[in-house]
Amino acid sequence: GDNNQVLTEDSAQALGLKWATASGATLEKLGSYRATSTENNKSFTSLSLDLDVDYSYLIVTVCGEMSGNAAMSIGLNGVTGTAYDYTYIRNAGGTLSGAEANNQGHIHFAGSALLTTNDDFNFQILIKYTGATANLFSVIVNGGAVGTNTGNQNTTGFADAGGSTITAVDIDLTASTWEIGTQIDLYGVKL
């Protein structure tokens, strides 16, 4: 077969198989980062990802180890101020908590009660454009940490980041740093 083709069943063929062009959504890796020193933020910039025309949604994976207590957040397109609303449910070491935050400068997706010194963490973030009516991005985060306060946090929010195009994705810590080897990857699911 040729590039972008898959082997499919076809009873009309002598061997019952044929090469055909792949159909449906494809996953495209758009950016990758691996910390070479202790750091507290990563920005994927100079992007032009239209979530209304070219991509169904984006996936960000964040995996690593903490060097101290901190909360982790995501921002889109460099927008700060009051552009973000979110809610979360957290289980940190068996203690359940939850909250709602409106008009924030980012979406906190992992609190400092969960991310403490030497804790390993793993979070998956889905970013989807809600359409021209609301002109917002929905952000859904699931993940957790293993260590001092083993647990998980689920966060859902909205970002008023202007239009359907993502130009930047920022992952930040409010205090402290992540360790060398922390990995952050950005993927797009093509329409």
Structural class: mainly beta
Sheet with most strands: strand arrangement: 3-16-6-11-12-13-8-9
Number of E-type strands: 16
Percent strand:
over 45%
Helical content class: under 10%
Q: What does the largest sheet look like?
A: 8 strands, antiparallel
What does this structure look like?
With 191 residues, this protein is mainly beta. The chain is 0% helix and 57% strand. It has no helices and 16 strands. Strands 3-16-6-11-12-13-8-9 form an 8-stranded antiparallel β-sheet, with no helix packed on it. Strands 4-15-7-10 form a 4-stranded antiparallel β-sheet, with no helix packed on it. The protein starts with a strand and ends with a strand. The mean pLDDT is 90.
Please specify the SSE layout and strand pairing.
Blueprint: E1 5-9, E2 17-21, E3 26-34, E4 41-44, E5 49-50, E6 55-65, E7 72-76, E8 84-92, E9 95-104, E10 107-110, E11 120-129, E12 137-146, E13 151-159, E14 165-166, E15 169-173, E16 183-190
Antiparallel strand pairs: 1-2, 3-16, 4-15, 5-14, 6-11, 6-16, 7-10, 7-15, 8-9, 8-13, 11-12, 12-13
